[in-house]
Amino acid sequence: MKRHIKVIFYALFFLFLFSGQIFAMVVDFHGRVQSTYVLRDTDGFQHGVLDETSGAQWRNELKFDLAIRPEYEGRPLVKIDKFFINYRGAYDAIFDVMDKYDDVRDKSPADYELGKDDLKYENDLREAFIDILAETSTQTTILRIGRQIVQWGEADGFNVMNVINPQ
Fold first, then answer.
1. How many C-beta neighbours within 10 Å does residue 13 have?
2. Measured distance between the N- and C-terminal CA atoms of the chain, rounded to whole angstroms
3. CB 121: neighbour CB atoms within 10 A?
4. Among 147, 115, 152, 149, which Cα is nearest to 130's?
């Protein structure tokens, strides 16, 4: 988490460094807040419809994307092109509401298995980067600093999922 704070700190430092040349900023914000409750019939409709139900999951999720694009008065040689953050956080309240999940084991530092905290909380700064653009009359150089998800492929004519599960 300290690394994520450093990335945000450096990005804000660059924004303030170039703030004398910035005229305005275009801000794009997309996100959602979602709450999902999963109710499970424990005997599976064999003896009656929804006669023995219990909660299986109560997940509250926050997800947002924030993109900031500065606009400049002139054409500086070096400028910030974009600052981007993608965040996802979730909390499963079923562990606090239902007593039957008290026996889920806590994660110990000795192993790498999932524990109750991994199932209960999610706090993930997925992407945080800043694009710095250096532009001359003959060439353009873009430097992207930070954490980013890199796409590694594209399926144009053949999609594997169409073979496994056709539409």
1. 11
2. 41
3. 12
4. 147
Q: Which helix (H) or strand (E) holds 133?
A: strand 121-135
26 vs 90: CA distance, rounded Å: 28
- Give the pLDDT confidence of 11-64 residue by residue, as tens digits: 667 666 655 566 688 899 999 999 998 887 777 666 777 777 777 788 899 999
Buried/exposed code over 37-55 (b: 16+ C-beta within 10 A; e: otherwise)? eeeeeeeeeeeeeeeeeee
Rounded CA-CA distance 65/73 in Å is 26
> What is the token pair recorded at 36?
């999902």
Q: Does residue 165 register a pLDDT over 60? A: no
Angle, vertex CA 150, rays to CA 145 and CA 151, nearest 5:
155
Q: Which amino acid is at 146?
A: G
Q: How far is CA 17 from the centre of its chain?
A: 27
What local confidence, expressed as pLDDT, does residue 15 receive? 63
The angle at the Cα of 124, spanning 154 to 133, to the nearest 5 degrees, equals 60
